[in-house]
Specification:
Chain lengths: ~140, ~140
Amino acid sequence: MGRKEADVCEIYYVNEVRVRSARQVLSPEREIVSLAEIFRTLGDPTRVKILQALSVEELCVCDLAKLLGISESATSHQLRVLRSQKLVRFRKEGKMAFYSLDDAHIDSLMKEALRHVREGADQGRETTERIRESAE
Amino acid sequence: MGRKEADVCEIYYVNEVRVRSARQVLSPEREIVSLAEIFRTLGDPTRVKILQALSVEELCVCDLAKLLGISESATSHQLRVLRSQKLVRFRKEGKMAFYSLDDAHIDSLMKEALRHVREGADQGRETTERIRESAE
DNA sequence: CTAACGTATGAACAGGTGTGCATGTGAACG
DNA sequence: CGTTCACATGCACACCTGTTCATACGTTAG
């Protein structure tokens, strides 16, 4: 009894129960990956701005580009990413393409995260910057 | 009146109102960056698993490593990232370090995102894979 | 038709990210 | 004391990401 695998952790048997119960809560790999994919998609300032802007009303590519201060090409690339995740949809009208939010969850996700940021994330940011600096 | 900048978009004046109102909703740059940072932190399968596991109860590094199937070093590296964002905290007991969630928002964030994934993200994933394939 | 426009996309490049390896640090134990 | 253990960290390297540039596509105007 006790140690199942080689010398990994002396007190293995103590936390085995915890590991087991924790493993049960883990979503299946596919869901985990999808989850991470969505968060990674939201993990870019440009895309956050796009989604915030579109939360008001639909906008065309060139207006988004002007709003963001980046090229229309870069904007289009980012919109492609957002489209691939079904976060935005678009409607073609002549040569224009009007984009809008495709998913209601996203807005509440961002608002929830914003609440987190506005609360006690100040020390967090300091810590981050300290680490990032010392890493260079 | 009308066109403010050089030849960017012919119908500039039409959507100027939209751009203006959309710009008002945008959070200040610092908040946007913080928001994106948090999402980017959540945008990794390993870290998602860590947070899901810790949502049950605190775990030490070596148990997390076993649970995740990666090295303790990699686990420690990821925990450092999560710490820097104040997403987890740790308690030292002898040579062990027990980690637990530091923020209640995070769990609800992940659950909200999970709801999004479980709904209609299937087509989304197909699209993503199609794009990823054609990009190689 | 041609030309111009708004948008989309492929290639390329700088910069960033996650993991393994080697090593360091502090605590517990003989 | 020195050794072992759990954990942390610097470095290196393969991989991924976001932007720019050049170009192509479909639509509209002349």
